[in-house]
Write a structure and sequence with these properties.
It is built from twelve helices and 22 strands. The protein is α+β, with helices and mostly antiparallel strands.
Length: 542
């Protein structure tokens, strides 16, 4: 955003301080909107900050978006820290940098004053949050020394602003000073000698004066350009419209509408594509592992053929295979020969079932991946109205999902609801917001993974439901490709969190343990397993 246009956008804010405000809204990852109310009975407007390169900008609009939760950690930081009234708005000279100062916020935990720096500098656009000592609290886009030798932008460093321009300020310079600075130059040189004028305003200046970019500024031509520069400095946006409408308001807002709607739709489609690709990879892995079933059945057949040669409690045995070769088999010493054979038959059956299920699901998953890729590629061909319609529908779907509460919901054959967390924050909510004292809580043993709650609702939870939930706990963990996964379970009242630990990190006691095959859907979450007991444990955050 060019300096003169930015100064014009900031001027009404400077004249209405202090500004009471509403809560931050975020239409997308690079747009922040702050609803404002200027004084007693003032007109409600919103300050829109677009930080997406290469055309970042800032401005007041009557349009206030209905909502929009944070998309990024920096936006979450804005909500938490920049919570007080707007007490000051500053633009240094005509630099493309604006500072918004926020006073102390009220509430149970007051936040100290902070300053939001909007660097609207083309492809290097950025937002930086500072404390009262001008130390960086957060930055939208971290800049390290290997990328910019002049300054780093990362939390903990003292803020260093972009280097200032040394040009003539057309708002305060006299006609004589402007004439002296421009005398003998060409029209294209105005940008390098007069502050606040960039490519758009330079084109508008040429269109408004009827001169070519190479025209030499002297005599009457110089006087005409000096007068035009002063007019442009007083009302740059009006000059743009009058001189040919470069980046006119309607065109700019149309572009903003498209960018916001596209960002919403693209994010949802990107997630769908990633999910389809992950599930396809899981299906491919399951089909590849089906060949193990043949070897497991051969080993089980050998054990059944030579039961008398296997000693009770043996950990390994060598047997002559049906083709005459020697086979060495590892055994579970706690099982007899028939138990070891049955264990191999069961594992072979599970591998085959997974492969069969993967083969059935693959065509649908491939269609989902193809549709997501096709829709992503076709976003640029949709008009603004269609993009906004789709964005609105997708946003409503997300709101309905949030109203259902955190986690993925399943229903077991006995009618119990099972809630599965998918990340650290959801785990926290599933355990401590969804879970009640006598609900059942499950987690895979010794690994990060999902917190799972079985909502007991004052009923006795049958062991089949425990196994159902345990398979989901294993399926939503790094052990999802394993067999015989240990899952701990206990009542929710035996789970607690220590203050200061990361989200999702809990301690628990009085747990029992079951060993299950992982599952990620209700159909696969069934079968029999072994169980054990333990005394206590800790679950790390994801």
């Amino acid at each position: 955003m060019e300096g003169l246009l930015l100064a014009e956008a900031v001027r009404p804010l400077e004249g209405a301080l202090p500004l009471s405000r509403g809560g931050w809204r975020f239409p997308d990852a690079r747009t922040a909107v702050l609803p404002l109310q200027s004084g007693e009975g003032g007109r409600a407007q919103a300050l829109w900050i677009f930080s997406r390169p290469p055309t970042p900008r800032l401005g007041l609009r009557d349009e206030v978006p209905a909502g929009g939760s944070p998309h990024t950690p920096f936006q979450e930081q804005l909500v938490a820290r920049a919570a007080g009234p707007v007490t000051a708005v500053r633009q240094q000279a005509l630099d493309r940098v604006v500072e918004l100062s926020f006073g102390e916020s009220e509430g149970f935990v007051p936040q100290p004053p902070v300053t939001l720096v909007a660097e609207l500098t083309g492809r290097n656009a950025n937002l930086v949050l500072l404390d009262v000592g001008r130390v960086i609290l957060g930055v939208e886009r971290v800049v390290l020394a290997e990328r910019n030798r002049y300054r780093e932008l990362r939390p903990g460093l003292a803020y260093r602003p972009p280097p200032p321009y040394r040009k003539l300020d057309p708002r305060t310079a006299s006609m004589e000073a402007l004439a002296e600075a421009l005398s003998g130059a060409r029209l294209r040189d105005v940008r390098s000698r007069v502050d606040g004028i960039g490519p758009q305003l330079a084109k508008a200046l040429a269109a408004g004066t009827g001169l070519e970019a190479g025209a030499r500024l002297e005599g009457e031509t110089l006087r005409r350009v000096v007068g035009a520069v002063q007019e442009l400095a007083a009302r740059p946006s009006a000059w743009l419209e009058r001189a040919g409408g470069f980046a006119g308001l309607a065109e700019e807002r149309q572009r903003d509408r498209r960018e916001r709607a596209t960002a919403v739709v693209r994010e949802v489609l990107r997630r769908r594509l990633e999910l389809a690709e992950r599930r396809l990879e899981d299906a491919s892995r399951a089909q590849r592992r089906a060949v193990e079933a043949v070897s497991l059945r051969e080993e089980a057949d050998l054990l059944m053929a030579y039961p008398s040669t296997v000693s009770q409690g043996a950990r390994r045995v060598s047997l002559t295979a049906f083709d005459g070769s020697e086979r060495t088999l590892d055994l579970d010493p706690s099982l007899d020969v028939f138990g070891n054979a049955r264990k191999r038959y069961d594992r072979a059956r599970r591998l085959e079932e997974r492969a069969e299920r993967a083969a059935r699901e693959r065509p649908q998953l491939e269609r989902e991946r193809f549709e997501a890729e096709r829709e992503l590629a076709g976003l640029s061909e949709l008009d603004v109205e269609e993009l906004e319609r789709r964005a609105k529908a997708l946003s409503e779907d997300r709101r309905q999902h949030r109203r259902r509460g955190p986690g993925v919901r399943f229903r077991d054959p006995h009618g119990f609801e099972v809630v599965v967390g998918r990340n650290a924050r959801e785990n926290e909510a599933v355990t401590f917001a969804v879970g009640r004292s006598r609900d059942l809580w499950l987690h895979v043993q010794g690994l990060t993974g999902a917190h799972v709650i079985v909502r007991a609702e004052s009923r006795e939870v049958p062991f089949e439901t425990v196994l159902f939930a345990a398979r989901l706990a294993a399926g939503f963990s790094p052990a999802r490709q394993s067999d015989n996964v240990a899952v701990d379970y206990t009542q929710r009242k035996n789970v607690w969190k220590v203050k200061g630990q990361p989200p999702g990190t809990v301690h628990f006691s009085h747990q029992k343990t079951v060993f299950v095959t992982p599952a990620r859907d209700a159909v696969a979450a069934a079968g029999a397993s072994r169980r054990g007991a333990g005394g206590g444990g800790t679950v790390p955050g994801r």
